[in-house]
Amino acid sequence: MKSSTPLLSIFFLALILIFSAHAKGSEQLVNYYFSAAKTGQTDVIEEFVSHGFPINLTNDMSYTALMMATYYGHTKTVDRLLALGADACIRDKRGNTAMMGAIVKAEWGIAKKLYNHTCRPSEPNQKTVEQFAAVFGQSDKLEVLKRELNLGN
Predict the structure, then answer these.
(1) pLDDT tens digit string along 11-23?
(2) Residue 63 near residue 91 (C-beta atoms within 8 A)
(3) What domains, with CATH codes, occur in the chain?
(4) Who contacts 63 (Cβ-Cβ below 8 Å, separation ≥6)?
């Protein structure tokens, strides 16, 4: 971590206190967290989580930080979120996972990292990753990824 870590720690501790004391403060804190995921600020995400911020929190659109980092192509942030325990199986309000976001954005490097975290549908109307890839015309790319991972067909 950079030399600014103590300053960041103090800053985030103050934000956590605001989060627990005020509804408006909590809204701002949530916005900061998701902005960090969207812009690939991995060190900021680490500070949030190290101070007890819920890593799998969903925003008002039902996305997690992992989904945001995936969708915006921030590989380092995705790696760190997974290492910190982010749940790749959480689905948004449409039933999509972070892996599905990677498919939509053709983020195949990130998709490779998420593939082993892919979850089975928990409800009958939810798509598998393979079904989702077919809808977006990405079945061939998904098959290439599976071969690269030695997963076969």
Answers:
(1) 666 665 555 544 4
(2) no
(3) 5-148 (1.25.40.20)
(4) 34, 71, 92
